[in-house]
Amino acid sequence: MPLPLPPPNWEANEISKFIDAARANEFATFANLTGEIARLSDIDLGYRKAIDGVNHSKDWFAGFFLLRAHSNFLAACRLCWSAQIPESYALLRSCLENALYGLYLSKHPESRETWLRRGEDTAARQRVKDEFQIGTMLRLAAMVDATEGAVARALYDRTIDSGAHPNELALMQTLQINKSADHIEFKSNYLDHDSVALRAALKTTAQVGVCALSLFQLIYPERFDIMGVTDLLRHVKVGL
Hints:
Elements: H1 14-32, H2 34-54, H3 61-81, H4 85-107, H5 112-116, H6 122-131, H7 134-144, H8 146-164, H9 168-172, E1 175-179, E2 184-188, H10 196-217, H11 221-226, H12 229-236
Antiparallel strand pairs: 1-2
Helix pairs in contact: 1-3, 2-3, 2-10, 2-12, 3-4, 3-10, 4-7, 4-8, 4-10, 7-8, 8-10, 10-12
């Protein structure tokens, strides 16, 4: 579908200019990094098939987290394609967390009410904080499937290092240092270019997308088989 014409004064707004520059980067990534884009598109198809397969499932509650994981994956793709690299890792962390929450609540359905009542009062909020800790969920994932649990932990740590928290690597991967005889100039790119950091982020986006979808496979194994998601995951994992 063709893009609509921008509204009046769009080009005079600094945020709008940034959005246009980001969009130009998205086009460049799509056109030039076709292998990476093809893999991400296959993963997206896996999510869409999985979502279709969740209809009428007895474990319907985890389906809400499947939807949010997919939404976060798509948002991470958009930021990554535009080369907003550290920012994309924050969304990848959220994608993983949604999968981990979905798995946890599928194994502990009695905790749904605790989770749903978080906003009622201070005590309810604290109960959720006490129970729904990322370490607890990662340990559960490892208990259910040692391989996927280990992958989830490694990827979660990578997202924290790379931009989900304001850590050293989040800064350094887009930092340019220009030295001259009398001064040093620091420049942080909001929008990067075709770089090692961009390609690493694209690969991590694929890995997180696959890992999160694989965690949902532990909840819906038969439906993933029926919808062809199991075979699709096997395909996209090759070389990843």
